[in-house]
Amino acid sequence: QKEVEQNSGPLSVPEGAIASLNCTYSDRGSQSFFWYRQYSGKSPELIMFIYSNGDKEDGRFTAQLNKASQYVSLLIRDSQPSDSATYLCAVKGGQGAQKLVFGQGTRLTINP
Amino acid sequence: GAVVSQHPSWVICKSGTSVKIECRSLDFQATTMFWYRQFPKQSLMLMATSNEGSKATYEQGVEKDKFLINHASLTLSTLTVTSAHPEDSSFYICSAGALSARSYNEQFFGPGTRLTVL
Question: A102, B8, B19, B61: which one has the fewest Cβ atoms less than 10 Å from its Cβ?
Fold first, then answer.
């Protein structure tokens, strides 16, 4: 079992709709969870991080964390064509862990 | 703030040669830097964690004698791919850890270096 799993997609969503991206992780001791966006040929850029159970909203983005289910998701409201990218889920372990473990990424396409 | 640069942005070399990639934190000091590798359509794979003034910690399966990492100062880490071969062709990305404006120990990513070995 991979440490961090994502549906590789591609996920296709019409413009203006809600895009839902999911991620599960295997290390129950994981403390911090990150969503990165990566455009083709570019390095990742941080969208959001979350470390408490529940929802965290930032503009059109909402991250949801359920530690009991070892599940984290990202919702993108009012999807725009510029949101088309690969979305990477990353997890940082507990006890002062420094490194991030990335999922394989979900390729998202927003159709105008 | 928290800008990380990489040089070169792309490099093409012949098989058997060595290539050095620099990673710099431009406006902050980073005690820890990370080196990742990303093959086409795959995710980022951590190669090593580099702490200033000490030896890098390599991930399982990464050859430390092939991928030499030096972190001599708080703003510069280098990755040298020795005796590069075509299978080393990849996108190499560094990141630097720092306390962000959100008061969180965040990793700031460089723009990446695309290495092509002929």
Answer: B61
